[in-house]
Every structure is written in C-alpha cells, then in structure tokens.
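tool=predict chain=A
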Amino acid sequence: MLMDSVRTCVGVVVMFAGLCVTHGCDREQPATTARPGAGEAAEAVPQRPAQPAPRAGEWHELMAAETPSLPAREFRAAWVATVANIDWPSKPGLTAAQQRAEALGLMEAAKRAGLNALVFQVRPACDAMYASEIEPWSEFLTGESGKAPDEAYDPLEFWVRECHARGIELHAWFNPFRARHFESKKPDAPTHISNTRPDLVYEYDRYKWLDPGNPEAQDYSMRVILDVVRRYDIDGIHIDDYFYPYPKAGEDFPDGAVYERAMAGSAGGTPSKADWRRANINTFVQRMYREAKALKPHLRVGISPFGIWRPGHPAGVEGFDAYERLYADARLWLREGWMDYAAPQLYWKVSAPKQPFAPLLDWWIGESVRGVPVFPGLYTSRLDPSGTSKWMPVDITEQIEISRTRAGAGGQIHFSMKAISLNYVGIAPALAEGVYAREAIAPVCATCPAPALPLTSAGVIETAGGAALTWQDPGPASRVALVGWLKNGEWHVQRVGASAQRVKFGQEQGLPRRIAFALLGRDGVVGAWRVWEIPGGGAE
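tool=predict ok
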C-alpha cells in the first residue's frame, strides 16, 4: 500500500519565455465549460455551446483557430541506475529528505536537457527501491538490506509523482534474475529470497542469481513485476541485458541438476542445455509482456538487449555473442512483438570498425518486422572525464542525428542520467541547446491502447501579474499536457504535468497573442487543441 504521508505538496516553479508552471496545492478553478480532448474517437466530441460576446480585455475561446504544430515525436530518455549507487541515491543511507532532494535534482536536469522519460531501476538485485511486501528494502537505498527509510515515504511513488509533475514519463526498470550484486556490503535481510528460498538461488562470479530455468523462480520474479504494475502509476516497465549471467571463463552456471530434472520429464527430443536456457528466457519475456499488458494495456514494455545479437549480424560485426552466451534471443522477441520498443545497447562510436553504430541500428530496425520502434541505447557515460575513453559530446549527438534519419527509430536512451546531470564534458548544453533544443513528445504507441481522454474544463483568466491558463486534472487518462502560446507570429509549445492544473503567463515579457491547450494520452495520442485570445492584446 502506498504511504499516505508522502502525499504532500512540493512547490516547484518552472519559468520559460514568460510562462510559469507551479506544482503546488493552490488551484484556481477553470473558467470555461467542459470539452473533451480528441483521441481516436474525435467524431464523439459534442458541439460546444455558443459563447457570449467577449468584453474588452477578456480572454475568450475561439471556435475555429489556427493551432500549434505538434512537437517532434521522439522518445528521449535516460537510465537512472540505483545498483551500486551509480545514479541515485549518491550513496546508501542518506536521509529521506536528502534522497528526495537528489531525485528532484536529477528530474530537473532531465527536464533542462530536453528529456521526456526516465527509466528508473526499482529492483537492482531481488530487493526494492519502493515499499514492497515481497522483497526487502535495498541496501543501496538505506545502507542495510531490509531497513526502511528514516521516515514513511515510498521512493517509487515519489519518483512517479514528481516526474509526472514535470511532464516526464517514468518507466520501472527491473533486473529479473540478479539476486545480489558484488558491491553489496551487508548481509541480505532474512526476508531476501536467498534466505527464504535458497534452493532458487546460486552463487556465481561474485553475484547471486535466481535460476531462470526453475519455474518457481520465474513465478517469483513475475509476481514482483506485476505487483509494481498494479500498485504504481508508471508509464512502462523495462528490462535490460541481464538474463543468464555474463559467463565466467572456465565456470558454467550451476543449473545442471535443474536441467536434468527438466529433461527427465520432457516429451520428444531433448534440447541442448543452451537451447533449453534460451527457451526459459523466451518464456519469461513472452509472459512478462502478455501479463503486464493484460493489467495495463497502455504501458510501454521495453527491453534493452546487448547491442550485438550475434557476431556477423550484420556482416562484418564482431564481438560478444549474446544469443550463445546470455541465452538471449532478442531477435525472436523483436520479431514476435513481445515488446513495445527495443533499446539495443549500441555502446560504440559511429566509427568503430567492428561494431559500427549505423549498420547495427539498421540491422535491428530491419529485424522489426512488426514495426516495433527501436530506441538505441547510447553510452553517454563514456564522456566521463575521469575515464580513458576520451569521448566527446559530438560522439553522442552524431548518433542522435543518425537515428533521426531512420524511419524505424523513434528516440534514444542514455546510459546514464549521471552523465547528463553532472554535465560530462559539456553534454548537457549539447543536448539542451543543440539536438534537444526543440520540444519533443514520445511517439504514438500503437500497441498501447489507453483510456479515452476525458471531458475537462479549461480556460484563461486575468491575474494581477498577467494571465493564467487553468484546467481540470484529467486523472489517470493523461499525465502530460501541452501548452502553446503565440508570440511575435510564432507558436511555441511546452510539456507540463497535467496535474499542475495552472500555468501563468507574466506581463514582464509581454503576454502572448493566443494561448492553446491539449492533453497527451497515455498512448501518445494528442487530444484536440483549444485556443484562447484577448482581442487587441498580446505580442504580435
């Protein structure tokens, strides 16, 4: 159960071009009558009643007017890694207040950089960055496995709420089979799966792992994922490249007894252990997609496999064989449509001779026979000035530009948010003032049917300092609103949290000629624009 004590108001003011978005408790009531946003059933929109003639200096809604062009369609995300405190929190054992402050800093950095989604790691190693009745609190959060934060707050609920307040999607990232990371320092809690069901867990290469070949282990991880899907207002779920562990030279994963038991009960031919392992992961991936989407069809289910499916695909590519050594047949999952987007980790420079970025991206897109979009994962943390790689921002921005030339690619995910928030070698302005300077919203997700956009009241009113656009909170059908303003003959559009319900326009930089508003559905569909103007006023 989510903790009610975290439902407090956090005052945040965002300024852009004279427009002020306030996330807080005080709400002005909308000023005009209701009208639905148009989703896929635009024909159902009722006619609005006639409006009274406006008085001088009064904002009024136009029945027919030029509307803003939609922002670009591009998924712009970053991974927020909690394992080993890579991104958040900066170290274990911070107070809840310190954790929240750091989280808000990352969200604001994402907003400034032009991102529209964050992929937040909620389960690093059979532990929880949220209030769970299934798994213990993470050591990476509080410094001790099973120890709760120092006050009653749920970090995931906080991340979801505050990301949505900024018009940012929040996707929950799970590691389905890792049970302990080598960076863990303290013993696992008595409620950890390694203690409650040690028969499901193996030690292997400084880690502990659930056995993907054991149906009970698969059931356990599926229960964890679906618990989060049910209880939190997330926008998607996500898994990365950890299926069976990366192999240790000379040491096989110790699942021989489980394999022998499975083969003893099998009918027909006996698959090799490698084929059996791949079948185990295929079963889990298909099941995760089917069961998560059954609960919440609007969720985007994403997978981020290793960037090379197999060496030689495409021709000339060399490197690690994820199909043979992680037992991850990501090409099959993509072809079968067991995901809503693929984010292969293309962690090499454009010029890399054996792992060239563009041919690899083209190969993944070419395998997407069902039209699943490909959002390449970019190794933005290679920019770390303390490292030896000597990457520069152009190495990342060039990859973004290449992905935009491919019809099957619809965005990017950066590993990791720390590189952007700490502005490694100037990457933050290279994004915010360069490739991400223009606003963008996520592509429409054809496989993510969402609730119809609701009837919502909205209007523009005069205020002491200028004007305010107000609207009714649309609820779970929409977490993002689009606000447009016409100034000096040009429309501008900005994402805001739909729960904000209020945007101010200040007089100091001149009021816009017109103000526009639309809701963004959970599937990425934009509802009907509504436009207001003040006769004879505003900047032309």
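The chain has two domains: 13-71+453-533, 73-438. The first strand starts at residue 12 and ends at 16.
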